[in-house]
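To: structure desk
From: M.T.
Subject: fold request, one chain
Message: Could you run this one when you get a chance? Sequence is below, nothing fancy, just the single chain.
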Amino acid sequence: MKLTLVVPCFNEEESVIEFYSEVTRVFKDKVEDYELVFVNDGSRDKTPQILRAIYEKADNVKVVNFSRNFGKEAAIYAGLKQSSGDYTCVIDADLQQRPEIVRDMVKILDEEPEFDVVAAFQDRRGEGKVLSFFKKS
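Reply: Done. Structure tokens follow.
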């Protein structure tokens, strides 16, 4: 597996279908061999049912369901434990972090073997993204 996206979810019924569709569109013919690991962090809305529907139609989706809300850090950790990708990226389901950035990060890692980590951050939520590079030591 080349890439795993870990997606913590808490009450994301409004965004999770759009997120899945957008990742599928952006990665088509650009990122091969990827999986999505959705971690439902005890959502009280329809997020679990929507994730189940996505899981049933897609062969590259895993879903972890928590019995209650344990917090985003626990959801991320559970998703990382389920990751089988050579590369792993944590991304929120609300699309404030765009899948295009992940695609660009994968390209950098593929083309620049001296880097083993690429991080993206937003200096202000909802605004531009900046890429940072860390060289192997």
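Reply (cont.): The beta strands are 3-9, 34-40, 61-65, 87-90, 115-122, 129-135. Let me know if you need anything else for the meeting.
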